Amino acid sequence: MVDPMADAPLLDIKRMSLTYATQRGPVHALQDVSLAIPRGGAMGLVGESGSGKSSVVLAMLGLLGQGAETVCDSALFDGLDLRAAAETLRGRRIGVVFQDPAAALNPALTIGFQVAEPLVQHRGLSREAAFARAVELLGEMGIARAAQVARAYPHQLSGGMKQRAVIATALACEPELLLLDEPTTALDVTVEAQILDLLEELRRERGVSMLLVSHNLGIVDRLCDELTVLYAGRVVEQGACTELLGDPRHPYTRGLLAALPRVDRGKMGRLAPIPGGLPDLTRPIEGCNFEPRCAFAVAACALPQALRAADGRAVRCHRAEEIAGQPWPIPEAAADAVRPEKPLTLLRAEGLTRSFGHSSLLSRLSLKGLKPATDFKAVDGVSLTIGRGEVLGLVGESGCGKSTLGRLVLRLLRADSGTLHFEGKEIADEPPTAYRRRAQIVFQNPDSSLNPRQTVDEALRRPLIRFGLASGAEATKEVERLLDLVRLPPSYRQRYPHQMSGGEKQRIGIARALASRPDFLVCDEAVSALDVSVQAAVLNLLTDLRDELDVAYLFISHDIGVVAHIADRIAVMYRGAIVEEGPAREMLMPPYHPYTEALLSAVPVVGAHGRAASRIRLTGDVSSAPGTIGCRFAHRCPRHLGATCDTVEPPVRKFGEGHRIACHLTPDELKAMPPALAAE
Hints:
Layout: E1 11-20, E2 27-37, E3 42-46, H1 53-61, E4 68-71, E5 74-77, E6 80-81, H2 82-89, E7 94-97, H3 101-104, H4 111-123, H5 127-140, H6 146-150, H7 159-171, E8 177-181, H8 189-206, E9 209-213, H9 217-223, E10 226-231, E11 234-240, H10 241-246, H11 251-258, E12 308-310, E13 313-315, E14 345-356, H12 361-364, E15 376-387, E16 391-395, H13 402-409, E17 417-422, E18 425-426, H14 433-438, E19 439-442, H15 446-449, H16 456-466, H17 472-485, H18 502-514, E20 520-524, H19 532-549, E21 552-556, H20 560-566, E22 569-574, E23 577-583, H21 584-587, H22 594-602, H23 643-647, E24 652-655, E25 659-662, H24 667-671
Parallel strand pairs: 3-9, 3-10, 7-8, 8-9, 16-21, 16-22, 19-20, 20-21
Antiparallel strand pairs: 1-2, 1-4, 1-5, 5-6, 10-11, 11-13, 12-13, 14-15, 14-17, 17-18, 22-23, 23-25, 24-25
Helix pairs in contact: 4-5, 4-7, 5-7, 16-17, 18-19
């Protein structure tokens, strides 16, 4: 007998709407959202923060909480009504992986206990049997020494290992569907590549279906078959992932792609952020809710827009055929500021070193036993120069020493050795107030760096008073000037952080750093937490400010696409040292340091579907190295030469003006490397 459900989608949601009760009235978070995922299929769900992506996931899991009301024609999982069965399916047949593994794991419980818990809860296994299976699952996720890791606590693991543990927990009961809510956002590009490889293997070997929520279009393109684009609670476009990203038909999808910095294109001039912000969801718009921000809008867009399907694609835009082939308009780049080829040196660091005690489990255990390791050098003899008005990009995995180096050059941390000069004057460990004024920092997370009890006016006024730059009415004028610099109106003076979007808060963080009129800024992952459109706006702003104010940046990021877009020069850091440094345009093509090659190879690029076979897959992580006296990358290097790499410090090879690579490979071998990036 033929099973009538055999060809039916595993997950089938038709016309789901969701409202949240608030004091301002109901928020219409989702409006008639439909999607279907076949058995073994993978669908991507993309859109800006606030579009409703996570609400879709929470609705499927039955975790919306009080004040939420869901209405839909049907919501079926393998023929079962999700609205009634979500609690029994959750954790057993539907697994979930959230964005932040540190928040998803209980810091008071061991990793093994947390992976085993679903097996005890849903499968009725004894604690001993469940723990044994947890160890097996951790091993299947690619975690070395799984038995030791199972007895560790979350704070003792790296970010990638924590995320693998979360995936192991989600897979413990062998679910048919995996919901992935931004599973790689907080991870380095190499760890991200390892997680994506793992997810692809799970689909191939176990037939697991997936719903992937992400703002990284490269990841979605690599992992998914189908794609749903969500804007302000409505589906605006659906179709095959490859076709949709290659030929987007809805203006919003085109806008997302235009705002994306592309590492395979290097410096792209000016990015094209989507202007404005999401509409007020307490007041639903009957017509196209993207119309106020759309570059192709006409009067008829105020009328209701249906989701029209044709040729396997569905688009909510009455002008889709009329504007076919027209790209999202990208503003012409302003004329680049005229800069000297060799700018005057502003900051020079020589031989900076800083050591710390070990904190992670694997870094505290030697490979031969349980002997405690010695302190490690987070920064090991680093020298660098930054010219006035120059942007030096600093890339590398978490734990390689990037943020520590940034704090050393700001003298927020005391160096064990080395010197720092600013405009030719040596800066002591306890720098003068003048240096504090002229060297500032923009942090990654404005929610952590801005005081929630201070208004914007108070936050921007404080450095003015601290450095004696302005007070009273003059300080008010200066605050308004700073807001104008970061393209915000004076009315924002009285706002608190919770009254602003993520991009607006980051602009306030930049304005605060500029309040002391600095000559040098450290941007420490300053755009990594932002949506692609907001990120584009902030990158444009930073470029404009560099041109207007002649500010120099040390731009720290694990996103090589962002660094390639904004930087004049790039330095690649590994285990406390610079292994390659050179002009940005030269760093994206051979010759590379093998570590740079691996970083570039791991970047998910939209449209580069043929790269999977040629990707370089690094094993281990930065902290997994034994004590070496040779090349610090030798333990992971795919081009390892043997004892020479392990025991002899590599020579510095020079290629052209300012491009140097520390590697044992000969110059000819380095030049003969294949390109790591596939041009579109």
